[in-house]
Amino acid sequence: MGQSNPIRAKALIVEDDPMQREMLGLLLEESDFDVIACASAEAAELVLQGSGDSVVLMMTDVELAGHMTGVELAHAAKRYNPDLDVIVTSGRPLRQSLPDGATFWAKPWAPLDVIRVAETKASALALAAWTRRFA
After folding, report:
1. How many domains does the chain have?
2. Among 107, 80, 95, CA closest to 58
């Protein structure tokens, strides 16, 4: 008897530094997320427009390639999906306000923090799916 292949949660990484983008992707993939990676907020906004309701976690740097900042992207992302978990990171103090429900992480953050957030989110999604199935 074959096992069903569960649908994996989607995470959106928005980081202009290719090494950090790759590291975040690997950490989230290890936590069973499908990862969409973008170097600019404009590219990420196109993802959110097309499939924003299926993305459950977004991590973005403040300073990005393009004209839009990560803070502006966080506000746009919450308009597309108010339930989206948004983490904004920067090596500098944050000077703009974040949308309600978004979190700020100062760089350098620990890889374990990424794994902890991803696994907490994955567990919450699994519990919600289980509850819907047996309710």
Report:
1. 1
2. 80
In a domain, 23, yes or no: yes
Phi-psi region of 31 (alpha: psi -120 to 50; beta: other; left: phi over 0): alpha
User: Scanning the structure block, which residue is given the tokens 């649908």?
Assistant: 7
Whole domain around residue 62: which residue ranges? Answer: 9-134
CATH number at residue 97: 3.40.50.2300
Structural domain includes residue 105: yes
Q: What is the pLDDT of residues 63-106, one digit of tens each?
A: 999 999 999 999 999 999 999 999 999 999 999 999 999 999 99
Q: Please name which of 86, 77, 35 lies closest in space to residue 59, comparing C-alpha atoms.
A: 86
Q: What is the pTM of this model?
A: 0.90
Reference 122, options 5, 6, 9, 7; nearest CA is 9
Cα Rg for the chain, rounded, in angstroms?
15
Residues ≥6 apart with Cβ < 8 Å to 3: none
Residue 72 lies in a domain: yes
